[in-house]
Fold this protein.
Amino acid sequence: MSNARRTWHKSSYSNGSGNGNGNGNGGQCVEVSEGRTTNVRDTRNRSLSELSMPASEWSALLSALRTD
């Protein structure tokens, strides 16, 4: 699927002031496009490569991060 047809959303940790913890590190964040395949890209460098993985792997990653 082309980038033009995907729906992307920013990380919930992203805000206008920085990396989500309010320290103003320049809005470093990622965008995610979820579906059967989940794609992750750098918000500041959208034209560069994306990381793609099956949705099940994305869910497992999020679960592991939430429990640590």
